[in-house]
Amino acid sequence: QGQFLPAMEAVMEFSATALDSLATGAGVSSASVSAAAATFGTVAAVWMAVGPMPQVQAVRKCQSLAPVNLMQLSCGLLNAGSWLTFALLTDLSEAIPVNAANVVFTFCLFYIVYANVQGEESVTVLIHLAFPILMLFTMIVFGLDGGKHSKHAQLIGQITCGFNMLLYAIPLSDLGDIVKTRTRGRLTLFGVLASFSCSLCWAVVGVVNRAAPMVIPNAAGVALSSLQLLIVLVLPAPRDPKSEPVASPGKKANTNKKASKKKR
């Protein structure tokens, strides 16, 4: 840890200086770059919450959990809820509206998925919803016990950074299936572009303000989203079993007759 922090500070200073030089060369201030990145980052954060929408629409179509990554929804709720908790405990007013909206929207996505499945799958949805709710409840109680701007609030901030990185990494939980099937799996261009845009914007804001807790998870997000973008651009979408032609009973009978003739 003693070697990591000075190295991180050196990288941060170098990145901030390089960004300042680029901004000056373009005739704008680094503060303007930070403000623009924060604005676009807020829009991208909402876009990222909407990212799983194509998967949710596919659930409505096939009435099954197969198209949706419930871990991604759980982590999205956990990430937005923990950022909201941290923002309330540290008076970070800029982060409150977007994360409150993302919490509400993710609950709506969970409801749509739950309403379109039955039996054991509906129980699976409830389990994936209950876990982030219990985690957030624990964090809120812990934060309120310490009070605003306390060590408890700072610890919640560090945990939130971890959730942030996990959110960017979760879509790669299907990497085994992606390699096996040589398709993009449940990754969608819509969701991956949202993740890439969000992480890039907030990484820029962190670099300009030399804020390591903001840079670390979002720099990791840029790298992870770039890998996902490469997968989506290179590999084809998985084939829909319902779209494959099904042989009619007459054709099947004819094929069986031909096969029996050949045997004779």
Task: Characterize the structure shown.
- The protein is mainly alpha-helical and 264 residues long.
- Helix content is 78%, strand content 0%.
- It is built from 11 helices and no strands.
- α2 (30-50) runs parallel beside α5 (96-115).
- The chain is globular and about 55 Å long.
- Residues 243-249 have low confidence and may be disordered.
Summarize the model shown:
The protein is mostly helical and 264 residues long. 78% of the residues lie in helices and 0% in strands. The termini are far apart.
Key features of this structure:
mainly alpha, globular, 11 helices, 264 residues, single chain
Mean pLDDT: 82
Give the CA-based shape: globular
Strand content: under 5%
* Helix segment tally: 11
Radius of gyration: 23 Å
Report helical residue fraction. over 70%
Major sheet: size, sense and barrel closure? none
Order of helical and strand elements = HHHHHHHHHHH
Structural class of the helix and strand makeup? Answer: mainly alpha
Q: SSE layout and pairings?
A:
Blueprint: H1 4-25, H2 30-50, H3 53-62, H4 70-90, H5 96-115, H6 120-146, H7 151-169, H8 175-181, H9 189-208, H10 212-234, H11 249-263
